[in-house]
Each structure stands twice: as C-alpha cells, then as structure tokens.
Amino acid sequence: MKITLKCKNNYWRFTVHSWLLEIKDVLESELGEEVIIEIVDADNEDPELYVDGYFIGAGVPGEEGYLIEIIKKSVLRIRDLE
Q1: Any idea what DSSP says for residue 36?
Q2: What pTM value is reported for the model?
Q3: What are the residue ranges spanned by the domains of the chain?
Q4: Alpha-helix runs per DSSP H in the chain
C-alpha cells in the first residue's frame, strides 16, 4: 500500500510526514501489508493524503491516533471497491 502526502514543504507537511513514519509499523501490523510513504511537492498549504491513488482527505488530524483511524477506514473502503 502506498500512502502519498501532497503539500508544500511547510510545517504541516513535516508534521504529517513525521506522524506517518511513527505509525507505519502499526498500520503494517493492523492492515497486514507493507506501507510505502511517498512525499510529493504541491502548491497546496494543507496536506492531502492519498492511499494507492485514492484521495482520502486534506488537513491535519488532531493527533497520530486519528491519522491511524482515518487511514485504516479508508483502506477498508478502498478494498471493498476493488
């Protein structure tokens, strides 16, 4: 699974990227597959997250735990689509 973070190189991108690195092992364990994190420069100020090319949201969650839940729920929905 590839998680893509699109944003300008700013504080919020740094924050979300750091959180993704911290929760990578948890996601891999709970979802049962390898997680690849990709950073893409973009013009937007707010971070945008994509899972395997599907847009899952923009902005910064309140904490890492919310980010885990957002990604897990999105992955389960994407799996149902495929």
Answers
A1: E
A2: 0.93
A3: 2-81
A4: 11-31, 64-81
